[in-house]
Amino acid sequence: MAVPSHPAPSAGPRNRILRWIDYRLPFWEVVQHDFMEYPAPRNLNYWWNFGSLAGIILVIMIATGVVLAMHYQPNADLAFDSVERIMRDVNYGWLLRYIHANGASMFFLIVYIHLFRGLYYGSYKYPRELLWMLGVVILLLMMATAFMGYVLPWGQMSYWAATVITNLFSAIPVVGNDIVTLLWGGFTVGNPTLNRFFSLHYLLPFVIVAVVLLHLLALHQHGSNNPLGIDKRGPQDAITFHPYYTIKDMFGLCVFLLVFAIFVFYLPNQLGHPDNYIPANPMVTPNHIVPEWYFLPYYAILRSVPNKLLGVILMFGAVLILFLLPWLDTSRVRSARYRPIYRLVSWLLPIDAVILGYVGSQPPAGYIVTMGQLATIYYFFHFLILLPILGKIERPLPLPLSIAEAVLGPRRPAAAGEGE
Amino acid sequence: MRKPVLALVAALALLLGSGGQVRAQEEAKQQEAKHPPHQKWSFEGVFGTYDRAALQRGFQVYSGVCAACHAVKHLYFRDLAELGYSEEAVKGMASQVQVTDGPNEQGEMFQRPGRPSDPMPRPFANDQAARAANNGALPPDLSLITKAREGGSDYIYALLTGFKDAPQGFKINPNMYYNEYFSGHQIAMPPPLNADQVKYADGAPSTVPQMANDVVTFLSWAAEPNLEQRHRIGFKVILFLLIATGVFYAGKRKIWSRIEH
């Protein structure tokens, strides 16, 4: 076997077969370059664990989902019972389903923390705007996937959530009703709806994988942001991803899996709704239609607006506004650490989201309505007014000269100067 | 019975918030229902398992009382082996029912004794027959009932033991019964449990609280038959993860000690 002569790469694989492959398909090279030797800022804290966790839970969701789909029947007459067959008769079917159902919640939990990390440390700012926007695309795809997945067991909440959410599109002027008919595949939520939701629920995760790859590509263009929010100035500011962050990610993964396992094995139905163990019945409306917890804040925004079209616009706007965030935030300082006012303000947003979530879980009556309206107003006020103004009036604290200096202290000035 | 269109309108009304008042009233009505007190169950907690004696007694209550109106469509005779019955006993129980099978080679349906692989018999051929026999009310399937109600097993226990005479001034509709724990306080099910209604094979006293406890244990098993396996595996998984967490934490500290950070 003649290996074509080429300048022998020093970091290439020793194994001849791997070398043969690598010459034709740079698999090893990519792993080396983008995973093992990928230079990461040396000061990433535990908030930076959630990106890789999101990737891992995505793989868990696809793996369990593919097996569940082997046993599931996307037919309005069979769907509910087929889920029960999975729970009772498929070997470890209960485990697969509880992992998949609770995994959706875990995925959102992780992604929301990941998103907040980005907000707090200004990860959306120049030059990472597209990286951020791809993340928002992933969030939107996840929401669509999760919603359609929730419909599949064809329980009462599945059915009525599908009815309520698809009806939102009827608020769109002129074409609204046609869009709803298209979504339903008929004139009411029924078997065709279930069939197309199943098809799309299987498709979209792979679209998410594709966008995740773009997200990583964009990430590796300029590298990770870091808690200081300043750029790397040289090799002394970085460490190789492997082994430093691989081991840190493994530790974080174990902690996360512990939380996940407690839900799967001891509280498997805690995050679900009892009504979804009642088969779908178009004749009976549940007393209280609520979405899954991760949609509650948006649901609260929707219900806070007395006008349906405006409610729908604001609900989708709550996510879409994130696309504009890199330009709405006028401050050039990334990390909240050096923005004394933003540092406080940035915590008001998740508090506001929790209030909205609570409002979304309650029947809309009395003070709940007012609370929801105030929280909705604050949500948009935060992005549209507070952030643009804050960037102009806030006086940021002085930034450290380099990551190495901030981490190691000024006692190694020579090293800090080397990379310049 | 509401028409689907009406239901749809109602759902949309809720969304728009204009239905807030109707909903508030509905909620207020529901609020009246007493919160079911917590019972001690053999199957709760990290190591919880189903009490086999209670399961068998509960099955006796189900088949002697509940089965007259309520199906458990997700259960098969073979599942009863998990209650602690022998294979022979399960075969015996299955063979006592006649099952329609077929068509045979002549193209005709025929009756045969049940087998362990047959589903448990249903009291009514269809929902319409069930309603016709119950003043228009539909007795729900019980295979998932403890998971399909807010409050779970505690709620079912409270409901079974929560029948009372209606308080003064409470207007109760014909063929309805007063129950403290039911939403709206009016339930179409007559009080199902009466003392000494079932003669327990193990000689336990068949008081109403005892029977309620037993049948709820049985129904909790019917809804979640893999709970014991789930608890067992879960404990091992969590133990493994605790150790792995420790190992990776130690590894992280060791590797990071190579650099200043």
Provide an overview of this structure.
The complex is a heterodimer of chains A (420) and B (261). Chain A is mainly α. Chain A has helices at 16-24, 27-36, 50-71, 79-88, 93-120, 129-151, 156-168, 176-184, 191-222, 241-266, 296-304, 308-328, 340-361, 367-393, 403-408, 413-418; strands at residues 39-41, 238-240. Chain A folds into two domains: 27-285, Cytochrome Bc1 Complex, Chain C; 290-396, plastocyanin oxidoreductase (Helix Hairpins, Orthogonal Bundle). Chain A has 16 helices and two strands. By secondary structure, chain B is mainly alpha-helical. Chain B has a domain at 32-75 and 132-250: Cytochrome c-like domain (Cytochrome Bc1 Complex, Chain D, domain 2, Orthogonal Bundle). In chain B, the strands form two sheets. Chain B has a two-stranded antiparallel ribbon. In chain B, helix 3 crosses helix 7 and helix 6 packs antiparallel against helix 7 (208-223). Mean pLDDT of chain B is 90; it is low at 1-24. At the A-B interface, helix 4, helix 5, helix 7, helix 10 and helix 11 of A face helix 1, helix 2 and helix 8 of B.
Helix content of chain B: 40-55%
Name given to the CATH architecture of the domain at 32-75 and 132-250 in chain B: Orthogonal Bundle
Structural class of chain A: mainly alpha
CATH class of the domain at 32-75 and 132-250 in chain B: Mainly Alpha
Largest sheet of chain A: 2 strands, antiparallel
* End-to-end CA span of chain B: 68 Å
N-end to C-end Cα span of chain A: 46 Å
What is the radius of gyration of chain B?
Answer: 24 Å
Order of helices and strands of chain A: HHEHHHHHHHEHHHHHHH
Unreliable parts of chain A: 413-420
Q: Please name the fourth-level CATH homologous superfamily of the largest domain in chain A.
A: Cytochrome Bc1 Complex, Chain C
Helix and strand sequence of chain B: HHHHEEHHEEHH
Return Rg of chain A in Å: 24 Å
Structural classification of chain B: mainly alpha
